[in-house]
Give the backbone structure.
Amino acid sequence: MKKLNELFNIENDTVITGIKTNSRDVTKGDLFLCTMGVKVDRHDYIDDAISRGAGAICVSKDVGSKSVPIIKVKDTNDIAPALFQRFYDHPEDKLTIISVGGTDGKTSTATIIQTLMGDDICGYIGTNGYGCAEFFKDTNNTTPDSDKLYGYFQEFLDAGCKYVVMETSSEAFFRNRLDYLSFDSGVFTNITSEHLNTHKTFENYLFCKQQQFRKIKSAGFAVLNKDDEKSYLPMKSASNAKLILTYGKGDDNDLVIKSFSCSPTRTEIAFAYGGTSYEVISPLVGDFNVYNLAAAVLTASRYVPLDKCLRNISKINIPGRYDVIDEGQDFTVVVDYAHTPNGVYRLLSFARTLVSGRIITVIGQAGERDAGKRRTVGKIVSDYSDLCFFCYEDPRNEDPVSIINDMIQDIEKDNYTIIVDREEAIKAGLNIAESGDMVLILGKGVDRYETIGNEKIPFNDEEKVKEALKSI
């Protein structure tokens, strides 16, 4: 709890029990902060917040007299991070914060770092939720808004964590969610064109990605993929940290990937680090996960002993990333979050090295997101699959048929079927699978819902796959 005069330079000493930006979340004694969303102006919900017990309102517009104190500031969005920092007594200063950025691999790399360090001392925030050994909870965004973020930090402190590894999305920097936060270290995986619906140009996207490294403390360090030519030099040049550590196949890297060999269930990796050679077995598959593991080892070993990191490799589990579903069928079924052109290409290319039979892919593309990548994803899926089914995937307020039509624009092969309903598309893909085939259900991973219109409808790919397999 805080008094108003501890949060603002005013004389009012009204006690504030919490700060909320959604009127539906307001409880008695909360300060309702009227931020401006992409589509929502929270000033429109002041009366609702008061009816729910708000003890004060912070605004950036004239709203007239109300029954509770009104504090007017120039920009509610701009002050939000600092306001939450003050309310929670700066929990970010009591934690070591590791940021993970990149177009692909953020969730995997961040999860691996937490696993290598130990979830008893390291919390995780990202696409799959937030949590540590004591708890795990869902989130709405990869990188939360400040009204949630600093509360999460406090929860980690209360659970005994000393470190937090968090995925930092380009949209979070674009929306100024991380303006008041600095990082102790930053990890970058790769960069390809993505989220151009928000950033408009690749140059704008790159600039937002570079923000991660401008915000690293000078005494911290950056971990960069030297094999990713598009990101290495831009992130290195942007880094405020003097120490730059690199990973890749070249002998001039701090961690050198010497060789690896993949099977359907594991990867044997040889790498050199600190003048010593190591051989490890990872439960993750695919060359992309070799890079994710390399980045994680290089990062985590700066905070905990390397031998602890190596021991914990066997414990790695990343929900929604190459999840093999086995209900006794004689073909392979994989659920994966891959949805970007690069992510889909890498997964399909890897799958081709494993499969004796056909690759059957079920996929869609999100509505109200980067429409420019749809035709690219569609062509990649058709080119690298034997059969594919295009369906909806979080269409939001777009027509799902229109989205699918975008996806098929550049397809040259006659190997696809349009089944708009995702559940029916999954069933169709599984029903035609034969011994030795691999069915890939892509785009959603562990997501628990589909967004259709403005409504979130419960839906989980893994559950739908298991239900369908039992009826085959």
User: Anything to note?
Assistant: The mean pLDDT is 94. Residues 287-300 form the longest helix (14 residues). The chain has three domains: 2-76, 91-315, 323-470. Residues 2-76 form a domain with the Udp-n-acetylmuramoylalanyl-d-glutamate--2,6- Diaminopimelate Ligase; Chain: A, domain 1 fold (CATH 3.40.1390.10).
